[in-house]
Amino acid sequence: MTTTNTGFEFYGDAGSHNKQAVGAIRTGLVLGAVLTAIVGTVIFVWPAITLAIIAVVFGLFVLIRGIFRLVAGIFAPGISAAGRVLSIILGVLLIAAAVFVLRNLEAGLAVLGLLIGLSWIIDGIATLVESRNDGSRAFSIVTGVISIVAGVVILFVPVSGVAFLTLFAGAVFIVLAILQIVGAILVGRVRS
Fold first, then answer.
1. What's the distance, CA 173 to chain centroid?
2. Which of 40, 88, 101, 150 could lock onto 173 through a cystine, CB 3.0 to 4.6 A?
3. CA dihedral 149, 155, 157, 160 (to 10 degrees)
4. Following DSSP, what letter does each residue of 127-165 receive, concatenated?
5. CA distance 69 to 79
6. Is a pLDDT exceeding 70 seen at residue 9?
7. CA 177/CA 40 separation, integer angstroms
């Protein structure tokens, strides 16, 4: 007894795939490719608008975190007085930062770039420290150094760094769209 391999075993028993299941998978891949290509194209065609949207989303995220911190500091049961004061202060600071970001989107992008840069530097240092007894030490050292260097570069040009990362994401979206189309073409084919 021979079973066909559709290449998508994780959707269930590969031998039981019928034309309807393959068609559904193919349709999903094509729709995903179209949506992914649209996002990638929008990033490339309107990079300034894309960056403004990123800044607004970042500002809204900070605003929501600030509101939650403030509400938790005022109303959450079981918090010590010091914890309550700290939560209220942090909430007010986050709300103020969000208002600043939402009123000055370029500054928001700069702050986002600085946060990305700092997180990459911290992650790179942590990777180097954690790798001292690791069997894949060389790989970890290279990864840590690349993370630190990328973080330092982003720190010096935070807005340009975020712009570059946005365009890089756009390129990734386009590549993913192409790969999904290839997947849609290949799904259901029997391997010889």
1. 12
2. 40
3. 90
4. HHHHGGG-TTHHHHHHHHHHHHHHHHHHHHSHHHHHHHH
5. 12
6. no
7. 9
Q: Quickly list DSSP for the chain.
A: ------S-GGGS-GGG--HHHHHHHHHHHHHHHHHHHHHHHHHHH-HHHHHHHHHHHHHHHHHHHHHHHHHHHHH-TT--HHHHHHHHHHHHHHHHHHHHHHH-HHHHHHHHHHHHHHHHHHHHHHHHHHGGG-TTHHHHHHHHHHHHHHHHHHHHSHHHHHHHHHHHHHHHHHHHHHHHHHHHHHTTPPP-
Classify residue 136 by burial, with Cβ atoms within 10 Å: 0-12, 13-18, 19+.
Answer: exposed
Instruction: Pick the closest to residue 24 from 37, 8, 35, 38 (CA basis).
Output: 8
Give pLDDT tens digits for 143-191: 889 999 999 999 999 999 999 989 999 999 999 999 999 888 887 776 6
